[in-house]
């Protein structure tokens, strides 16, 4: 077994909090940075350095691939080499200068994943107040005559991609390389309410990410090569996909874009045959279901092979050596459905079910692991080690240029010096963002004493890895990676006349919300009279018809308030007693103690999710 290994270095003993400040745990570092951060790559101090050097070294390699429609069907992947892309980048830079953009200017990119990030036409709306500040727009395909006229009427210069490249060729200018302290990108986080936050990442942040991943991967026998291929379908405005592609370009490898329909992603997999695949839990849930549909009639044999391979993996054998016979008889068919060449699958954006992770580790014949990070940390804060079954369910150890510690969250009962250590994950290091764009107040609130407060609650496991167990301030991610503000939803739903009180619950391993509802007694009795139902208030609360009515009223409230689909409550538990009468569920200031609520209703919640999974509710 490998559970005795330690995967992080612990520095210091933390602070007990007796001085009035929250208690904090010790600092955790990657073992490669136990004593100090190692020196970064000598020739790469900016993302531009990485791309330029890779283009020189790998000029003829395939860099960007996409599929074109041929006779009404999606054809094979066509590619642009590193040399071709580099030349286009220089021309685009020259065209921007010719249009008046100076070094340091900010350029907006909006579109789906493609080699050009197809530009959306709605920016041409002349009624938009921002139109007066928009001088030029570049469509990554081409404009229609109607769209060109619309742009001219709005006082905007409109270019097709090829026209813009021609402008650059006709007006060449020397590149002005960025400095490490310059802004590399402003990436906006997907907030649930209010304005999105613009996370400012510098070139140094990106360069240190590349250096750290290089050093980390050097520990393992399986190296990344120029022959590796990544299928890009997560949004490029998502930090996970962005940093993966940056690293692939750094190594001279290839990135192929999906053709635009996630439901047909299997077709892109078979055509591209990627070696690396990244997704969110919801995507991997679908993969698991697809694999289970492939299981032959002799399910008992499949599960015997599964248990046999899992046994040897748990004993410390690498996945490819645990049971070659099981791979030959059953699991190679799974790998073939993923294109046949996948060597690594990574899950991010939200916690992953241990059951699904274990299943894919056994059946996919490749490395399968989790990582954890935020836009504010340039994507990678912790990462798991390949083939380490002791990390199942965890998100790994701190990355090379990251320091991590836990901070006490007294209102939720989490303490970093308890056993096990639990608390809010705080991060600092070389990949930490510099600020929220034009929001100094939020920057000061989020970065205190040099530590970024993530809002995620972590637990340090005995082997030095971290596990995500909760979310501070009740902002959670569902399994598809969408943020949900539970307290906000409770305010929306509580306005419903039939609702006296409501507790909304979301599990990061599930895709749906459920709720415990305390009905309004008077309105419940009115419903009963109108529907010919008799009984005490408690008896009425137990009726399936009443439960369905409450759920329908919540749905009406959700639609009236224009909640998004994943914010709709899909199932309810009816509680006849008010939460205040149930011991321990409320604070003295009448706030719900969510950990106690979950413990109290755990059985009902589990039954409800099982019922929803079976489609009976």
UniProtKB/TrEMBL annotation:
GO biological process: cutin biosynthetic process; wax biosynthetic process
Example of a GO MF term: long-chain fatty acid-CoA ligase activity
Domain (AMP-dependent synthetase/ligase) ranges: 67-121, 159-437
Polar residues bias: start-end ranges: 1-11
Domain of life, source organism: Eukaryota
Chain intervals for the UniProt region annotation (Disordered): 1-22
Gene Ontology CC annotations of this record: endoplasmic reticulum; membrane
PANTHER family listed in its UniProt record: LONG CHAIN ACYL-COA SYNTHETASE 1 (PTHR43272:SF6), LONG-CHAIN-FATTY-ACID--COA LIGASE (PTHR43272)
Name of the protein: AMP-dependent synthetase/ligase domain-containing protein
Provenance organism: Chenopodium quinoa
């Amino acid at each position: 077994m490998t559970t005795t290994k330690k995967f992080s270095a612990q520095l210091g003993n933390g602070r007990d909090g007796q001085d009035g400040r929250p208690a904090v745990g010790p600092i955790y570092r990657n073992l490669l940075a136990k004593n100090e951060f190692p020196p970064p790559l000598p020739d790469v101090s900016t993302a531009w350095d990485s791309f330029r050097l890779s283009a020189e070294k790998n000029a003829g390699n395939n860099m960007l691939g996409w599929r074109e429609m041929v006779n009404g069907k999606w054809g094979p992947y066509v590619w642009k080499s590193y040399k071709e892309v580099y030349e286009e980048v220089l021309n685009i830079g020259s065209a921007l200068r010719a249009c008046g953009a100076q070094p340091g200017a900010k350029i907006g990119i909006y579109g789906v994943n493609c080699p050009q990030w197809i530009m959306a036409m709605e920016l041409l709306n002349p009624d938009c107040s921002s139109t007066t500040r928009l001088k030029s727009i570049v469509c990554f395909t081409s404009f229609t005559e109607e769209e060109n006229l619309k742009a001219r009427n709005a006082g905007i210069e409109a270019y097709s991609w090829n026209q813009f490249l021609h402008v650059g060729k006709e007006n060449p200018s020397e590149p002005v390389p960025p400095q490490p302290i310059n802004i590399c990108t402003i990436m906006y986080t997907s907030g649930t309410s209010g304005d999105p936050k613009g996370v400012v990442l510098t070139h140094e942040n990106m360069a240190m990410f590349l250096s750290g991943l290089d050093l980390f991967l050097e520990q393992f026998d399986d190296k990344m090569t120029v022959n590796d291929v990544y299928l890009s379908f997560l949004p490029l405005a998502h930090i996970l996909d962005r940093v993966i592609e940056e690293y692939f370009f750094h190594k001279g490898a290839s990135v192929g874009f999906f053709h635009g329909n996630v439901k047909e992603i299997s077709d892109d997999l078979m055509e591209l045959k990627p070696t690396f695949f990244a997704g969110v839990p919801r995507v991997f849930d679908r993969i698991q279901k697809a694999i289970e549909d492939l299981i032959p009639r002799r399910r008992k044999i499949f599960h015997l092979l599964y248990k046999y391979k899992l046994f040897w993996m748990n004993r410390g054998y690498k996945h490819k050596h645990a049971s070659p016979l099981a791979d030959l008889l059953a699991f190679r068919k799974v790998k073939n459905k993923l294109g046949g060449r996948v060597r690594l699958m990574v899950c991010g954006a939200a916690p992953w079910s241990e059951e699904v992770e274990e299943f894919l580790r056994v059946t996919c014949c490749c490395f399968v692991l989790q990582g954890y990070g935020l836009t504010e940390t340039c994507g990678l804060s912790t990462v798991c080690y390949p083939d380490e079954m002791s990390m199942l369910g965890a998100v790994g150890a701190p990355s090379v240029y990251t320091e991590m510690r836990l901070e006490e969250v007294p209102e939720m009962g989490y303490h970093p010096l308890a056993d096990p250590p639990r608390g809010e994950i705080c991060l600092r290091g070389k990949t930490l963002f510099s600020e929220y764009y034009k929001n100094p107040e939020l920057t000061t609130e989020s970065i205190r004493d040099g530590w970024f407060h993530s809002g995620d609650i972590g637990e340090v496991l005995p082997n030095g890895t971290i596990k995500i167990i909760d979310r501070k301030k009740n902002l959670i991610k569902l399994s598809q990676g969408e943020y949900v503000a539970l307290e906000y939803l409770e305010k929306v739903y509580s306005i419903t006349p039939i609702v006296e009180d409501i507790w909304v619950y979301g599990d990061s391993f599930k895709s749906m919300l459920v709720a415990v509802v305390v009905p309004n007694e008077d309105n419940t009795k009115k419903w009963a009279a109108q529907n010919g139902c008799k009984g005490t208030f408690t008896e009425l609360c137990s009726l399936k018809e009443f439960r369905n009515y409450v759920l329908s009223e919540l749905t009406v409230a959700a639609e009236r308030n224009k909640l998004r689909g994943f914010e709709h409550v899909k199932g309810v538990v009816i509680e006849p007693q008010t939460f205040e009468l149930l011991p321990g569920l409320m604070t003295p200031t009448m706030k719900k103690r969510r950990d106690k609520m979950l413990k109290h209703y755990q059985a009902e919640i589990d039954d409800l999710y099982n019922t929803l999974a079976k489609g009976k509710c």
